[in-house]
UniProtKB/TrEMBL annotation:
Binding site for ATP: 59
Protein's organism: Knipowitschia caucasica (Caucasian dwarf goby)
Domain RRM per the UniProt entry, residue ranges: 327-405
Nucleotide-binding is among the record's keywords: yes
SUPFAM superfamilies: Protein kinase-like (PK-like), RNA-binding domain, RBD
Listed PROSITE patterns: PROTEIN_KINASE_ATP (PS00107), PROTEIN_KINASE_DOM (PS50011), RRM (PS50102)
Any Pfam family the entry gives: RRM_1
Keywords on record: ATP-binding, Nucleotide-binding, RNA-binding
Domain Protein kinase, residue spans: 30-310
CC annotations in GO: neuronal ribonucleoprotein granule; nucleus
GO biological process: positive regulation of translational initiation; regulation of protein export from nucleus
Stated name of the protein: Serine/threonine-protein kinase Kist
């Protein structure tokens, strides 16, 4: 589940079923730190254990007047069936929340995740107007595409359709350094669709649009949607990440309805890109293969993972490394070149940086390259992403020897492999 800036729990009296202050989870009291989201059937909260050493997300389902708790049982069943995949949110357990002031509610205790793709789209365009034209880097698009496709491949092999893939339902995991799928409230077994209205407007496949229209008109359905609807949704998400624009109006436009391929070609040709044309064309072809109108001819998740787009290494934008938490921090604007080649000064700087960084958490390793790539940058690996997030918040804007510190996160796997990106500006 998504995390974000922690909001204080209001002290004014509130209705417990609307904003609980405490949850009793398996005999332990967990306090609410923030409300992360609210939907038609459930609310999601960030919670911490009584000892304060653990954090998680609680999805509390509204009590059903007639009983049955259908939404709770459905999502629980799906998550229990597909547990264990690194790109799908982890279900820790289920419990019942009792209240003296209202009916008992059913809850899921879930892994706490970080920033959503929706937030990445909003925050990047808000902090840099140029992103409206440029969108995100091919590194992030590739990372998101591969992670979600691997999740869908596993989900589809188990016979499930997610049926509500959108930017809000794809979240970054700081601990696992990958994107994960959440919210399986509309999911169903292929061939046994028990939900009439699926997918969110703007990410809805043509066959789902037709099905929804027929259902609204009271027409009995004689066919069901398939896993192909998920590929359509993912393609729109990737196109939004690449272009930097929300595409709800675009996919409803006459031009898109007449020839979506031409619209996609125009979007790619109008975007200035620092990479060569070949990997960009691989991404364009991958997206087109997932936006074929006929679900029978649309690319599957397994086939999409074979795209040559995934064989090319890319570098991230610096803004992306500020938004995607990791156990590794990269500190910029700290060290002058002259200090790197004086061994005594270099050792003193290493010791000073270790001492400073250990104030914010347990430091596993610290690296200051003397040559490019990464020359003069300070890479600090903390024992946990939570330590790194605290350090990033407190170090950014600090001065060190008269220099203002810029602290970004850095991909853990790249750091451990010694791969130091020359990030895109």
């Amino acid at each position: 589940m998504q995390s974000g800036p922690i909001q204080p729990v209001p002290k004014a009296p509130v209705e417990p079923k609307q904003r609980p202050v405490l949850f009793e989870v398996f005999g332990e009291i967990w306090s609410v730190q923030a409300r992360l989201g609210q939907g038609g059937s459930a609310s999601v909260f960030q919670v911490s254990s009584g000892r304060g050493s653990s954090t998680a997300a609680v999805k509390e389902f509204q009590a059903q007047p007639r009983g049955g708790d259908y939404a709770f049982h459905k999502e629980r069943r799906v998550l229990e069936d597909i547990q264990g995949h690194k790109n799908i949110v982890t279900l820790y357990g289920v419990f019942t929340q009792h209240s003296a002031l209202g009916p008992a509610t059913r809850c899921l205790l879930l892994e706490l995740l970080d920033v959503s793709v929706s937030s990445l789209l909003l925050r990047t365009t808000a902090t840099n107007s140029l992103r409206l034209q440029q969108g995100h880097s091919l590194w992030l698009v590739q990372h998101c595409a591969r992670d979600v496709l691997e999740a869908l491949s596993s989900l589809h092999r188990e016979g499930y359709v997610h049926a509500d893939l959108k930017p809000r339902n794809v979240l970054w995991s700081a601990d696992d350094q990958c994107f994960k799928l959440i919210d399986f409230g509309l999911s169903f077994k292929e061939g046994n669709q028990d939900v009439k209205y699926i997918q969110t407007d703007g990410y809805r496949a043509p066959e789902a649009e037709l099905q929804n229209s027929l259902a609204l008109a009271g027409v009995e359905l004689d066919s069901h949607c398939t896993a192909a609807v998920d590929l359509w949704s993912l393609a729109i998400i990737l196109l939004e990440l690449y272009s930097g624009n929300r595409l709800k109006d675009t996919v409803h436009s006459p031009q898109w309805q007449e020839d979506s391929g031409a619209v996609i070609d125009q979007m790619f040709s109008s975007k200035t890109e620092t990479h060569t044309a070949i990997p960009v064309s691989h991404l364009r072809d991958l997206i087109k293969s997932m936006l074929v109108k006929s679900p029978q001819q649309r690319c599957s998740a397994d086939k999409a993972l074979l795209s040559p787009f995934f064989s090319v290494p890319f570098a991230p934008h610096i803004e992306e490394l500020m938004l995607l938490p990791s156990p590794v921090l990269r500190l910029l604007n700290l060290i002058e070149d002259k200090h790197l080649h004086n061994e005594e000064e270099y050792e003193d700087i290493l010791e000073d940086m270790k001492e400073e960084c250990q104030k914010y958490g347990s430091v596993v390793s610290l690296l200051i390259p003397k040559e490019n790539p990464g020359k003069g940058q300070v890479f600090v690996e903390y024992s946990s992403s939570s330590d790194a997030k605290e350090a990033q918040k407190l170090l950014t804007g600090r001065t060190f020897d008269g220099r203002f510190v810029v602290a970004t996160f850095y991909p853990l796997r790249a750091y451990r492999r010694g791969y130091l990106y020359q990030t895109l500006q």
